[in-house]
């Protein structure tokens, strides 16, 4: 048992990013999946103002946000590895990915999955919960779906809008790769920009190395889009980052 606990939603791509950073940098931790609703209660009990996942409980502090967790992980690792937190370009690319890609991949997916096929989303949220929380989550699922639909402003128009934003961001990422660089921020080593892009885009390509891939089902229209996008340079890069570094 570790004295560090990372609180996550099993489905969350931002949580996957934090886990990947800590794994890559050789930091031990326990992972604690939470059910929606309970996450805010746990966050408050740890002194956080918001429930936003992931958050990492350390003996001396609680760190919230995947970017802040990467900052911390990169500053304490003794693995000899680095996610290039001192490289401005890596941090800038990461921020754009967090602010646009993360938000709109999620809204694209949930606008179809949660609104039209909520039963395909539930199994991923159930992963790693206690048996009691599994029962509670099953019972509360219709209510939680309604709340998520409202909070994330989901719907078919919104899903289409997010798809177009993701598409523009994929064009930008393909553009970065068009000079033949191996890593998004250039250089010869994996950076925080790479694990961010790979984690946030993983839902479209479901890499076999991702611990949740086999539990995620894509809704039909998104699956068709993902299929068309799979051969894009950035999607091939995501698959290769997972194969090499996850
Ligand atoms: N930029 C943040 C985004 C985190 C985020 O949006 N988390 C979502 C799950 S994907 C969440 O916890 N939503 C519930 C809430 O905010 O209460 C990060 O990188 O950690």
What spatial form do the alpha-carbon principal axes imply?
globular
Number of helical stretches of at least 4 residues? 10
Sheet bearing the most strands, described? 4 strands, mixed
How many structural domains can be distinguished in the coordinates?
A: 2
Bound molecules: glutathione
Distance between the termini: 22 Å
Rg over CA atoms: 18 Å
What sequence of helices (H) and strands (E) makes up the elements?
Answer: EHEHEEHHHHHHHH
How many beta strands in the DSSP annotation? 4
CATH topology (level 3) name of the largest domain: Glutathione S-transferase Yfyf (Class Pi), Chain A, domain 2
Overall mean pLDDT: 97
At the first level of CATH, the class of the largest domain is Mainly Alpha
CATH-level-2 architecture of the largest domain: Up-down Bundle
Percentage of residues in DSSP E strands: 5-15%
Helix share, percent: 55-70%
